[in-house]
């Protein structure tokens, strides 16, 4: 054998009780699992003493924004040090494939706050398949830091085929979008994402989304929406997604065009004051659908604040036409006043139908160094320091930073977070934005935060339950037949951690601090983290979906 991990406490991803065993690896896979009393112990060229450590499958980040980070950063300790061995990219309906030259320029501008402007990246791909190939041949053909799967971004697809108009797609445009989705699925995507509070994806109606989801379902993929509201209309927005992907029409519904597509709810939570204590309402909705035969899962991050861009708060009509049109509207006093009224009085759809509270909007990153003084302050705090109204400060930030500012939005509820993470279809997703001077600590801390705070300190989940949430459940959603379990024949994507000490190092004050208590991480049996330090190994590859019709 290549390696034997001796005397590990194996938490195998099934949620069954842990057991003590030697685990032998060979040629990148688990070759043998030897429990006490099984006979002669396996031998290998190398031995790793795991006494006192838990051995689990590698963690799968079901909601990652590392689309460019994996191409620019061979270290990528933000995820590797957490024990993440696979990330799912292409989230929230906006990413970099499929594109043409026009669409690529626009999408780079649109999500600068998530991934940087990409000026350091050679965008030598246009299709989903070419992007996945680029991941595989990155860094001189070595690959990437961790494995990556990809969701086709519905907003980018609409940008490509329709543009930035707030209108229904024509039959020809819809046909083109379906072609792009089918091609992306055939080339290896695992599903499709949406950002239904982000332009231009939010301009799609349910009929359009249903047609696209049918294509996804035909290729064995799943639909992953950031749905239309996490605030005032949250429960209705969840119900809309459940109904849209329903496997069959309810009794008496006639020939309603249901998509029959697996559904995975992105960063599923209930935010803002209107939803305090309402997690049980969401869970009851999901349980009813699951009991009726729906295929649903969800992911969450174990924190209360959210993270996005400041421009995402604006009403959808302000985003029509793309980034330059947004800046033009902000430059016009009358239109800017209309935007303010929607934000502060009516509750814009970008802010989930809730009137914005500027003391909950903390600036976490800016593109322009001249604006660095705003980072770490809420918009309300910056406004008080300047002696002006919060909207005046926000408008200036949007214009001077060319829409590139990122924010933390402090609108979550701890009791909702805890109840949702207990659910039978829950998985973990960091939603980690790695850009900015003060990023959300979830980017560096989600998985040890689950294991340390919510398992060891609070007892919200048992260790075995939590590991299953972070490993086998997401692998099942991704339909990966050889990942997510410690089982003979499975890929040797493994994490060794100390249940007594594992903890997130990242905080809101020090968001890029690495976790503690995770000394070893292996991908395909190769050490990515060894004795708590990042190695030079690049063992990650693109993980392609089945693409089956």
From TrEMBL:
The keyword Chloroplast is annotated on this UniProt entry: no
Q: Which InterPro entries match?
A: Amidohydro_3, Metal-dep_hydrolase_composite, Metal_Hydrolase, Metallo-dep_Hydrolases_sf
Going by the UniProt record, its keywords in alphabetical order are: Hydrolase
**GO CC terms in record:** cytosol
Q: Which GO terms describe its molecular function?
A: hydrolase activity, acting on carbon-nitrogen (but not peptide) bonds, in cyclic amides
Q: Which residues form the signal peptide?
A: none
Where is each Amidohydrolase domain found? 47-529
Pfam families found in the cross-reference section: Amidohydro_3 (PF07969)
- The name of this protein is Amidohydrolase family protein
Q: What lineage does the source organism belong to?
A: Bacteria, Bacillati, Actinomycetota, Actinomycetes, Kitasatosporales
């Amino acid at each position: 054998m290549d390696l034997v991990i001796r005397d590990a406490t194996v938490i195998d991803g099934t949620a069954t009780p842990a057991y003590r065993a030697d685990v032998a690896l060979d040629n990148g896979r688990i070759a043998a699992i030897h429990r006490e009393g099984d006979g002669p112990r396996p031998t290998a060229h190398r031995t790793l003493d795991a006494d006192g450590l838990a051995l689990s499958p590698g963690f799968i980040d079901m909601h990652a924004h590392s689309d460019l980070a994996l191409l620019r950063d061979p270290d990528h300790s933000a995820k590797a040090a957490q024990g993440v061995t696979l990330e799912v990219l292409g989230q929230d309906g906006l990413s970099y494939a499929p594109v043409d030259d026009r669409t690529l320029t626009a999408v780079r501008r649109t999500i600068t706050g998530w991934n940087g402007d990409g000026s350091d990246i050679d965008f030598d791909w246009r299709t989903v398949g070419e992007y996945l190939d680029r991941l595989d041949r990155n860094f001189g053909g070595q690959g990437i830091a961790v494995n990556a799967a990809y969701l086709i971004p519905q907003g980018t697809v609409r940008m490509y085929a329709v543009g930035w108009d707030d209108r229904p797609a024509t039959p020809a445009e819809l046909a083109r979008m379906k072609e792009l989705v089918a091609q992306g699925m055939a080339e290896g995507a695992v599903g499709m994402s949406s950002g239904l509070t982000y332009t231009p994806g939010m301009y799609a109606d349910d009929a359009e989304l249903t047609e696209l989801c049918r294509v996804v379902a035909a290729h064995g993929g799943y639909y992953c929406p950031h749905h239309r509201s996490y605030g005032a209309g949250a429960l209705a927005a969840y119900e809309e997604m459940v109904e849209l992907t329903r496997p069959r029409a309810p009794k008496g519904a006639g020939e309603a065009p249901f998509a029959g597509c697996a559904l995975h709810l992105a960063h599923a939570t209930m935010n803002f004051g209107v939803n305090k204590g309402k997690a049980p309402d969401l869970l009851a909705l999901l349980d009813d659908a699951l009991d009726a035969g729906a295929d649903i899962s969800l992911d969450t991050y174990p924190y209360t604040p959210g993270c996005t861009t400041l421009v995402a708060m604006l009403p959808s009509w302000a985003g029509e036409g793309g980034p330059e049109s947004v800046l033009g509207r902000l430059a016009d006093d009358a239109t800017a006043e209309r935007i303010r009224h929607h934000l502060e009085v009516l509750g814009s759809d970008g802010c989930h139908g809730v009137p914005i509270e500027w003391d909950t909007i903390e600036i976490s990153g800016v593109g322009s160094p001249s604006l660095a003084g705003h980072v770490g302050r809420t918009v309300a705090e910056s406004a008080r320091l300047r002696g002006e109204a919060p909207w005046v400060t926000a408008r200036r930030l949007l214009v001077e930073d060319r829409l590139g500012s990122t924010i933390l939005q402090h609108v979550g509820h701890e009791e909702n977070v805890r109840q949702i993470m207990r659910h039978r279809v829950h998985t973990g997703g960091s939603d980690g934005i790695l850009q900015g001077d003060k990023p959300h600590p979830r980017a560096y801390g989600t998985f040890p935060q689950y294991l340390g705070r919510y398992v060891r300190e609070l007892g919200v989940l048992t260790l075995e339950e939590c590991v299953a949430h972070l490993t086998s459940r997401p692998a099942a959603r991704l339909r990966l037949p050889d990942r997510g379990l410690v089982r003979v024949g499975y890929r040797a994507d493994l994490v060794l951690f100390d249940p007594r000490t594992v903890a997130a190092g990242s905080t809101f004050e020090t968001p890029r601090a690495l976790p503690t208590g995770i000394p070893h991480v292996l991908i395909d049996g190769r050490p990515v983290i060894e004795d708590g330090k990042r190695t030079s190994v690049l063992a990650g590859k693109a993980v392609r979906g089945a693409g089956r019709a």
